[in-house]
Amino acid sequence: MTYEKPPWTATILTLFPDAFPGLLDVSILGRARAQELWALETVQIRDFAVGKHATVDDTPAGGGPGMVMRPDVVSSAVDSVSKAERPIIYLSPRGKPLNQAKVKDLAAGPGVILLCGRFEGVDERFLQARNVEEVSLGDFVLAGGEVAAQALVEACVRLIPGVLGASASTAEESFEDGLLEYPQYTKPRNFEDLEIPPVLLSGDHAKIAQWRRDEALKFTRSRRPDLLSDQLHSARTNPTPKKDDDR
Ligand code: SAH
Question: Domains in the chain, ordered, with CATH?
Answer without folding.
Answer: 8-157 (3.40.1280.10), 172-240 (1.10.1270.20)
